[in-house]
Design a protein that fits this description.
By secondary structure, the chain is an alpha/beta fold. Helix content is 51%, strand content 12%. It has an eight-stranded mixed beta sheet, sandwiched between helices. It has a two-stranded antiparallel ribbon with strand order 6-7. The chain has a two-stranded antiparallel sheet with strand order 11-12. It is globular.
């Protein structure tokens, strides 16, 4: 009996692995057929930008499909020359030695010694160098699979079939304007999946929002039907650690349906949706209010009551704003609240708000923070405030019975603007805003939005 068990167990395990691998290869082959790939013609996927989510996304693809080297090539681009500071190198060394699998992998690859030398201060590590070993500079506590890293942007993108934008919204336009120069001779347009959450405000010819996918299309000339947005209520490190998560890929039906199937994994469910720009804007909006949530948590010593009061007011403002942006805001309520909830729990924007309130970070340090990356909520505060301050978008104030700019009904957004952008007030102002006796019941703000024709299609660049 014992002998039979010893023989059969490896076979059962092996058969299970073979079945999984075969299923992945079938998915890859099906997607290659959709793209019209012939035998011997590699499907080339490249991530542009190596922040936490961009790196995890590339690593997930590598883990799933990287073994089929004759059919797919998966690479990631990041700028070269970014040095890893001594404190991060020391922490990275601790992470490596706490994970036997990572330690053995580095020793096999003859890569362990450089981390010892960096720990001792005898050499400098670089972000692109450690990424090849599976360490994202913004997320060193979560080792990823080793990746093929390219530091030359032209080499990375010139013949890519799929480009994944993992850049912050504040860097997207500049990088894709450079990419345009490398695509002048292309016959076919690539597919672009943007992971970026953030917006810019434009005031001419009318006030409107510019999203990362729009930046990409304008910078490169790639048609919007080839550009998609993927986002959802998730934390990058937890997705890589196989916590159950879901996301939506939004865009034209031609590509979103086959991409949803290609990207879907047992622990990472990808749905598809046609409403690209609105989902993209909502991804930026929740970052605004996450910063305030972090401030409230810190200033009240994690008071559950104070956080719930803030949540009531910030969600009512977000619901109000969604009524300005879309004709059917109720369809966004679930995804927006879920994304907001996870960001308030563990996102970098909430963390940033906490650190600002504690005095451990200052606004003078900027919004690109070592070990965290770009805090996109800061620029989003400025963009939404500027946009919603325009008199041409006026709505009727419920108490004063006169037309006001929409931002006048968003006291939390106004206060965050004064703290983060104008720097006229310190973080305590967020509590003063919540305790203002003149503050309307959050329910009233939602009722105003639901009972008036607030929808402004021009905000999203629609006629």
């Amino acid at each position: 009996m014992v002998g039979n068990i010893e023989v059969m167990t490896p076979n059962v395990y092996s058969n299970g692995v073979i079945s999984i691998v075969n299923g992945l290869e079938e998915k890859l082959d099906e997607f290659r057929r959709v793209l019209g790939k012939s035998d011997g013609d590699l499907l080339k996927i490249v991530g542009v930008g190596a922040g936490a989510w961009g790196s995890v996304f590339a690593a997930l693809l590598q883990d799933s499909y990287g073994r089929f080297r004759d059919k797919v090539q998966i690479r990631i681009w990041r700028r070269g020359g970014r040095a890893v500071d001594r404190a991060t190198a020391e922490h990275l060394f601790e992470v490596i030695n706490s994970r036997e699998d990572v330690l053995r992998r580095l020793i096999r690859r003859c890569a362990y010694l450089k981390y010892v030398e960096a720990r001792l201060g005898d050499r400098v590590l670089y972000a692109d160098e450690i990424l090849k070993d599976g360490f994202c500079l913004n997320m060193v506590d979560t080792p990823l699979s080793p990746m093929k890293v390219v530091t030359n942007l032209q080499e990375a993108v010139w013949d890519a079939d799929i480009v994944v934008n993992g850049l912050p919204s504040t860097e997207t336009r500049e990088v894709f304007e450079e990419i345009r120069n490398y695509w002048k001779e292309r016959i076919n347009h690539p597919i672009i999946i943007s992971l970026s959450k953030g917006i810019e405000a434009a005031l001419d010819p009318v006030p409107h929002i510019i999203t990362p996918t729009q930046m990409i299309s304008r910078a490169t000339g790639v048609p919007t039907e080839n550009i998609l947005y993927l986002g959802g209520p998730n934390i990058a490190s937890e997705i890589y650690n196989k916590e159950y998560a879901n996301a939506r890929i939004c865009g034209a039906e031609k590509w979103r349906i086959p991409l949803a199937k290609f990207l879907r994994q047992p622990h990472f469910i990808v749905w598809d949706n046609s409403d690209l720009v609105t989902h993209e804007v909502m991804g930026g909006l929740k970052n605004v209010y996450a910063i305030g949530a972090g401030m409230v948590a810190s200033l009240t010593n994690e008071s559950a009551t104070s956080k719930s009061v803030y949540f009531a007011h910030c969600t009512s403002e977000m619901i109000f704003i969604t009524h300005l942006l879309t004709e059917e805001p109720e369809k966004l309520a679930g995804p927006l609240l879920a994304d907001t909830y996870v960001t308030l729990l563990k996102g970098r924007n909430a963390w940033y708000g906490q650190m600002i309130a504690k005095g451990e970070l200052s606004l003078d340090m900027g919004d690109s923070i070592s070990g965290k990356g770009m805090i996109q909520g800061v620029s989003a505060v400025g963009a939404f405030f500027e946009l919603l301050s325009q008199s041409s978008l006026s709505v009727l104030h419920p108490n004063e019975k006169k037309s006001v700019a929409p931002v006048e009904l968003c006291p939390i957004l106004k206060t965050l603007y004064k703290i983060l952008i104008k720097r006229e007030q310190d973080s305590l102002a967020i509590l003063e805003a919540l305790r203002d006796e003149r503050l309307n019941d959050p329910r009233e703000r939602i009722e105003i939005a639901q009972s008036h024709a607030f929808y402004k299609p021009s905000l999203l660049g629609q006629p």
